[in-house]
Write a structure and sequence with these properties.
- The complex is a heterodimer of chains A (74) and B (698).
- Chain A is 18% helix and 39% strand.
- In chain B, strand 3 and strand 4 form a beta hairpin.
- Chain B is elongated, with a radius of gyration of 30 Å.
- The chains are: A alpha+beta (74), B alpha/beta (698).
Chain lengths: 74, 698
């Protein structure tokens, strides 16, 4: 089975961050509190489907879909 | 005097704290060598000591993402820097504790006395967390103070702590030396540095940091290579280690109690503000409200200011003895100052709205809503902020593009932002609209003049979007674009912050732009009052020679005045460009205003005031009534009729007429290529569109 990522979640669903697919972007995501082992919740998408709003480390973060794809979850 | 720096994440309440500490006792300047807004102020501690407070740009990490964020490391790490502080107050949003602490742990390792201010403790308690400040202080080895920056609670304790703050050596939270011992030793021995983390950061940042001299960069580069310092890998390890440490610190001092977690208001509001239909409807309504209120609220004080200055000017010219100095005062300086002061109501109202949108957290939702649309034309959701602030002034707006990490997106945003109608165009719009559009209501509620105004703003916006789309096709890049952005919780605006922004921006305008406007008014007065030959002194004789009709004394006097203006230096300049602007429906008087407008658009109104008061014997008229009375000698009808008025309006919407904007674009793009392209393309578009509009309407 393929590894799931944040973009696969449906609104309201959560997952646990397991790793990153993009090295350069992961540095920024780590600093913004997206840490392996942390729960991440897909809150809602913007009206046009992109970007999306997720909750992580106790606050809301907006990510584009192509950024959300790089965060793999369990 | 001791210097205290404020550091924190964006949205952590840093500016509220700064405003509370310094009140109106603050000034805005630039950090040395870079054009990043530097806010400093003074505060007096309980023991009577006066200290300087420096507000550093908000950042999530000491690793900079932009030029602004870079300042934080530059100032804190460099002991020789003129702004290097004696102590740092790190303010964190305690309701978003973990992520906020990351920056704190980085500052902690720099070896400067630090105070940790836990802001928004009231929200923390509501979300079911509790933080034991005392215990945390013991763990971290620095003073930890709970506070409420919005209301100023905890401020006295902070001041007291600053006055008694001592420097004790701390053990670093991230042990940089354990990860790259040789590289750090090498940096410490070749530079005058004793802190491990500063040495480590210098290797990390040397490629992106312009403040490091080239020879030092080369040294750092070779150290990086020699000791196989793998930057990204170390940075990843560092972040993970810091978060692990944070988890240990808060273990025991922070209690999570999820049973009382309330339904967050933010979630509910987001359902509305980012709704498919309501989200956009609300956004457009807010923009509409802004324009309607500027028109409805600002015109009253503006008319009043206009009246006061014209009355004052006529009082001066009738009371003081007739001399050159009196004329300079009454026709040059006073209308010139009036042309500056008249802007204050609009600028204050505009910045009040922008500051409310930022304070409430709504601005990031606008970015969220618009990102996908903006990306279609080569922009970024974050371009919305510069585009909206461009409505106030292109200069801060272009500086605000620094938050856009992708160079191509940033360049396009910089290029198209001046198409947004800035507040300097507003007086030109309001005066011309008042002359050519009837003050009527359609459908009972919509003021026709207000609608016309909004139409002009939309026209500028559309041109910005179209140009962006064209540039997207032309420019090529491989650099990636990101939108990893915090969506802060909604908050009620703090009115003191809104008020301070209004005062500050108006002050900056009056003193910065005002200088140019006043200087140009005086130059213009000289150019309009003097001319070559004896045409000025013997104007009366020339007029009498030319005319054979019997004229009344008043008619002769009017003819003499306009003869003088026509043969002044300004008149000669205006006449020289008349052939080029005649197809647009302008005469040489408007030509003079166009020339001066290239320094700054806002000069249009004061230029008109100067030109028409010189050529007019009726001293008491306001600017508006003078323009209304101006007659086109060829048609015998009003000079400012619909075709000419519309053509002028369209010209001002598109033309690049602001030297300060060109200077900022030069600074931000590091070259003359882009500002020159802007000048040529924008003015070309303006000329062609004005030509089209004039010919369609007449």
């Amino acid at each position: 089975m393929d590894i799931r990522n944040v973009a696969d979640l449906s609104p309201g669903e959560s997952g646990i961050i397991s790793g990153f697919m993009d090295d350069a972007l992961s540095l920024k995501l780590l600093e913004m509190g997206c840490l392996p082992g942390q729960p991440i919740k897909f809150n809602f998408a913007a009206p046009l489907g992109d970007p999306i709003c997720v909750s992580v480390s106790g606050y809301d973060l907006s990510l584009r879909l192509d950024e959300a794809i790089t965060i793999s979850i369990q | 005097m001791r210097k205290i720096a404020l550091v924190g994440n964006p949205n952590s309440g840093k500016s509220s704290l700064f405003n509370h500490l310094t009140g109106l006792n603050q000034k805005i300047g630039n950090f040395p060598g870079v054009t990043v807004d530097k806010k400093t102020g003074f505060t007096t501690l309980p023991n009577g000591e006066k200290v300087e407070i420096i507000d550093l740009p908000g950042t999530y990490s000491i690793y900079p993402n932009s030029k602004d964020e870079r300042i934080v490391f530059d100032i804190l790490a460099n002991k020789a820097h003129s702004l290097h502080p004696d102590a740092v107050v790190v303010i964190v949003d305690a309701s978003n504790f973990k992520r906020n602490l990351l920056l704190f742990t980085q500052i902690h390792d720099l070896d400067i006395p630090v105070i940790l201010a836990l802001n928004m403790m009231d929200i923390v308690e509501k979300t079911g967390l509790s933080i034991d400040a005392e215990k945390l202080s013991k763990e971290l080895g620095v003073p930890v103070l709970p506070m409420k920056a919005r209301s100023g609670k905890g401020l006295d304790l902070l001041k007291e702590t600053i006055s008694g703050l001592q420097h004790n050596k701390r053990k670093p939270i991230f042990d940089a030396k354990a990860h790259a011992p040789e590289a750090i030793e090498a940096v410490k021995s070749s530079f005058d540095i004793d802190n491990d983390y500063v040495a480590y950061q210098l290797i990390q940042q040397h490629k992106i940091n312009d403040s490091i001299a080239d020879e030092d960069k080369a040294k750092l580069e070779s150290i990086e290579g020699n000791f196989k310092f793998s930057k990204d890998e170390l940075r990843r390890k560092e972040t993970l280690e810091r978060y692990a440490a944070i988890n240990e610190f808060i273990n025991g001092s922070v209690k999570e109690n999820f049973t009382v977690l309330p339904k967050r208001i933010t979630d509910t509001l987001d359902k509305v503000f980012t709704h498919k239909i309501w989200g956009y409807a609300i956004f457009i309504s807010i923009l509409f409200l802004i324009f309607q209120s500027i028109f409805a609220w600002a015109t009253i004080p503006m008319d009043l200011i206009d009246l006061v200055f014209s009355e004052f000017s006529s009082w001066v010219s009738t009371t003081l003895p007739d001399s050159m100095l009196t004329n300079l005062l009454a026709d040059g300086i006073i209308p010139g100052i009036g042309g500056i002061v008249i802007f204050i109501p609009q600028i204050a109202i505009l910045f009040a709205f922008i500051s409310i949108l930022e304070e409430t957290g709504y601005m990031s939702r606008v970015v969220f809503l618009m990102d996908k649309i903006m990306r279609k034309v080569g922009l970024n959701g974050k371009s919305v902020v510069p585009l909206i602030s461009g409505v106030a002034c292109a200069i801060p707006a272009i500086m605000a593009t620094r938050t856009i990490e992708n160079w191509k997106e940033r360049l396009i945003t910089i290029f198209v932002t001046p198409f947004m109608s800035c507040s300097a165009r507003l007086p030109v719009y309001t005066i011309l609209i008042a002359l050519i559009i009837p003050n009527k209501y359609v459908l009972g509620v919509f003021n026709l003049q207000g609608l016309a105004l909004m139409g002009l703003y939309l026209l500028g916006f559309l041109m910005a979007i179209i140009s962006a789309g064209v540039m997207k096709l032309i420019l090529k890049t491989k650099e990636r674009s990101f939108l990893v952005m915090e969506l802060p919780t909604y908050k009620a605006p703090r009115w003191a912050n809104v008020g301070l922004t209004m005062v500050e921006k108006s002050k900056t305008f009056v003193f910065e732009a005002g200088k140019i406007i006043l200087a140009i008014s005086i130059i213009l007065w000289v150019l309009a009052s003097y001319g070559p030959g004896d045409h000025q002194e013997n104007a009366r004789n020339y007029v009498l020679e030319q005319t054979t009709d019997q004229l009344s004394e008043e008619e002769i006097e009017n003819k003499v005045q306009s003869y003088k203006l026509e043969h002044s230096y300004a008149g000669i300049f205006g006449k020289a460009i008349e052939p080029a602007i005649r197809p647009l429906g302008y005469d040489w008087k408007i030509g003079i205003a166009l020339i001066t407008s290239f320094a700054a658009r806002e000069v249009f109104v004061s230029t008109m005031a100067t030109i028409y008061s010189i050529g007019d014997t009726d001293e008491e008229a306001t600017i508006k009534s003078r323009l209304r009375l101006e007659v086109n000698p060829e048609t015998g009808k009003a000079r400012y009729d619909l075709p000419t008025g519309m053509s002028l309006l369209v010209f001002y919407v598109f033309a690049m007429q602001c030297m300060s904007t060109l200077a900022v674009v030069y600074r931000e793009t590091k070259g003359w290529k882009w500002p020159m392209l802007q000048l040529i393309i924008m003015t070309g578009i303006a000329y062609l569109s004005a030509l089209l509009v004039y010919n369609l309407l007449s």
